[in-house]
Amino acid sequence: AFVDSPGVSPGPSHEYTARGIEHLAEAIRSVAVAHPVVDDSLAEQLAMFQQKADDLRANPSARDHADIVKDVFSAAADMLAHLQRTRRIDSPELETRIAALAQLARDVDGGEPLLQQQARVRKFFESSADVLDMLGRGMSIANARMVDHSAIDGV
Q: Are the C-beta atoms of residues 127 and 97 closer than 8 Å to each other?
């Protein structure tokens, strides 16, 4: 929903990016919670996202904003890859999209002001929304297969 209607535009305050990070964390949490195995490290990493969003808001003129976003985006891509592996969703398209997310994270340039990289930021949020949707649908398919299988086994 944030990607389609963010409610705030990119600007010097970095509110758009901070809100996007918060929404990204919530979306990852939602997909992760749907799986019976959620480890504490994922929760800790998602809590770090909130801190990073707060860091963006704290000082709009700080020079480390691009580095902050790059770290968050890299962590998000790693988490999404982890979720795919732990759910055993075998999808070459999903793997390709997660690899593209990791590349988008690497493309954020720490030496360039974040405001000048808003196209990259927006692209990352849009692409991560697609990956999260695919992970969510993959979960539903996997769960449906488990239910069907258990019904056959008389469980």
A: yes
**Dihedral angle of Cα 141, 136, 47, 21, to the nearest 10 degrees:** 170
Which amino acid type is present at position 150? Answer: S
Give first-to-last CA distance, the chain, whole Å.
Answer: 38
Looking at residue 73, its pLDDT comes to 97
Per-residue pLDDT, 40 = 76
Residue 146 tokens, joined: 């488990």
Q: What's the pTM value of the predicted model, to 2 decimals?
A: 0.81
Report which residue type is found at 133. D
Alpha helix (H) ranges present in the chain?
15-33, 40-58, 65-87, 92-107, 118-152
Q: Which residues contact 67 (CB under 8 A, 6 or more apart)?
A: 110
